[in-house]
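Lab notebook, bench 4. Continuing the backlog of folding jobs that were queued last week. Each job is logged with the same field layout so the records can be merged later without manual cleanup. Today's entry covers Major facilitator superfamily domain-containing protein, a 489-residue chain. Filled in by technician R.K.

JOB TYPE: sequence-to-structure
TARGET: Major facilitator superfamily domain-containing protein
LENGTH: 489
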Amino acid sequence: MRCMRDARESMFIREDSSQGRLFSGTPVTVHVILERTVWHKIDRWILPVITIFYLLSFLDRVNIGNARLYGLQKDLNISNKEYTIALTLTYVAYVSSELPSNLVLKRIGPSILLPTIMVLWGVVATLQGVVTNYQGLLACRFFIGFLEGGVPGIVLYLSLFYPRQKLQTRIAMFFSAASLSGAFSGILAFGIRDLDGKRGHSSAAWIFLIEGAITVACGLAAFFILPRSPTSARFLTEQEKKYVAERLREDRVMSKDPGVDAFSWSEVGGAFTSVQVILVGVIYFWNGVALYGLAYFTPSIVQSLGYTSAAAQLMTVPPFAVSALVTVAAALISDFYKCRGAVIIGGAVICVAGFGLFLGSTDHHIQYGSLFLSIPGTYLIQPALAAWNANNSAPYIRRATTMALGFMMTNSGGILATWLFGVLSPAPRYVKATQTLLIFSVLMGLFTALNIWYLSRQNKTKAIARGSTDSSADAEKMGDRSPWFVYSM
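JOB STATUS: finished
OUTPUT FIELD FOLLOWS
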């Protein structure tokens, strides 16, 4: 019932309704038509590009797992430990560039920055197909990570186009691309197997050459499609631009005072000292371990169940395909009821069931079936976390920092995941890795419940504070710490 009640509440408590105040003198029916059509327009132009962007970023980061099944380590004469170091370097570089890229996104312009980094990492990803030694692989993995550190800016970019109550479903659309990348990578790798030896390149090399070239082409196309902001979108009429801008100001995504959204080190620091950001950050880390552990090692896990390399590539497709559907469905529920925390707890419970089945059974069919729980459970949590962070941080610079911190924690979890599977927990059972992920899943549920409790207490305290003041004039300057800012739970 609390979810349904919260679904009817605004992110900010307002002194009066602004629905009838948009474009004074304009008939209410025009507002209804605009509300019905404008978001669909943005969806058609923005979401496909962003989804492809995220799909390819994830694909170029984790397709090394598919290449491994086709003899990458043998081609480069590297050990399991050296392979793990290469994966780790990717995330060290990724984490180091996430916060700076988020902070400069608005200044440079997302329509320039995002396509640029896409083209550059696509070039580096392609070059992985021609490296002949371990040092070359390390260099490529470092620059892929460093350039892809700007990828989390996608969430910040989307938050500039949509009101908060519409955000998670859109985030889930491109987060589902992470699941689809697992399915797409398996299908593509299966098809590439016959290219072994063509033009002097192995199957492992062709994975990088083909998928990297696709990224470069899509990055070049994105320059001509992505708008800098809603007010500069060519596909919107002037009336639609004004409507979107007013709706975003109403929802405090855009500030009425431009100075509020200006860069400030104090707002950067404010993200580091927010309790809800810290709690969600810890959950991000635990989920990141599972997310990247499954992304990188599902092909190896499936192969350890007795499938050949080619068959293992195909058998990874169904769990990731199911995950994409579940991620979007969970986001629709979360957006409708505004229950970010409840969705995360639900995902954690599904993860517990999946990892528990894999750990408790020796039957290969049951172990494979457990992936239909653990993969969707893990992947549906990410968009809920991203929306939770975006919903509960303001103004812009604090929100940008908060979202970067969340992804930094996720990718820090990726560092642990690269060592957890294979090195610290050998195939085929991956016992220690599975035990660790099971414990992390339980902790995710508990810490989510703790954050819900904390946010509920803060909202009650703010309600009392609102009773002692007659104005919300300083709400924008105070950001999410204003009594008039109601946290999403």
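OBSERVATION: The chain has a mean pLDDT of 86.
SIGNED: R.K.
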